Amino acid sequence: MIFTTAALVDQLVALGVRRGGTLLVHTSFRAVRPVEDGPLGLIAALRRAIGREGTLVMPTMTDGESVFDPRSTPTDQMGITAELFWRSPGVLRSTHPGGSFAAEGPHAASICAPQPLAPPHGPDSPPGRVLELGGQVLLLGVTYGECTTLHVAESIANVPYSIEHPCVVEVDGVAESVMIPETDHCCRGFHKVDGWLGDRGLHHKGKVGNADATLADARDIVSVALDHLARQPLVFLCEPGAGCEECDLARSSVPAKRERTS
Predict the structure, then answer these.
(1) 256 falls in which pLDDT band (50, 70, 90)?
(2) pLDDT band for position 170 (50/70/90)?
(3) Fewer beta carbons within 10 angstroms: which end of the chain, N or C?
(4) In 189-244, where do the E strands start and end?
């Protein structure tokens, strides 16, 4: 069965996507397909579901290994839907050299406005601005492990871990590699949020195309994350000895005093 744009719109509306709202979408088209007109058909359905007064947002992050040009630099591991979305006429793209997002709609300019280099996904970033606007987060065929809004929560909570990664930027016309600190880890711990929100009835699950879909308010995602981070700042990191190099590296960045009290 090939899903038509109209059928996808019906599924999105049934899931709870708000008309006129701001919608941040993380998606795996492979999970959603087959769709009429392919990824462009999915984008059309998302646009129709939120309507002309809605704003559609997707991550368009890059590898940071060359000078970033929002008009031409391809995404890295963001999927075909996001790649085609930012290239569509009328879509704006933010200018962070590694953590860019694309947006279309009334709030696109404010969402894609310039932001600090660090943190890439703090309150003053595209997902942080979606949060401020009271937007929704839609996970299509992906899990909370891909939910960038949780990095916003980590930034607000001022978690004690921070890892620096190199990123190429242009300074006075010359390409330079700079180190950008961020709350980086394997993100498997973000899966805990699924249960936290589910226990409180704060997200909706269903199908969009063939994909398992999850929809939640960005403010609810951040609220439950902050609640747990306040009690256990390292809750999203894998336990010591679990064999996770990324989380071990994050733990090693925590001052000894904070590690003992977390």
Answers:
(1) low
(2) confident
(3) N
(4) 203-208, 211-217
- List 206's β-bridge partners, or say none: 213
Report field, pTM of the whole predicted structure over 0.90: yes
Q: Which two tokens stand for residue 142?
A: 């992906």
Mean pLDDT of the chain, nearest integer: 95
150: its two tokens: 């949780």
Give the Cα separation of 1 and 158 in Å (integer).
47
Tokens of 118: 């660090």
Q: Integer distance in angstroms from the first to the last C-alpha of the chain? A: 50
What local confidence, expressed as pLDDT, does residue 173 receive?
80
d(CA 194, CA 180) in angstroms, rounded, equals 29
Q: Which helix (H) or strand (E) holds 221?
A: helix 218-231
Q: Domain locations in the chain? A: 5-261
Give the burial string for 157-194 (b: 16+ CB within 10 Å, else e).
Answer: bebbbbbeeebbbeeeeeeeeeebebbbbbbbbbebbb
Q: Max alpha carbon distance in the chain (Å)?
A: 57
Judged by average pLDDT, the poorest of 52-56, 107-111, 171-175 is 171-175
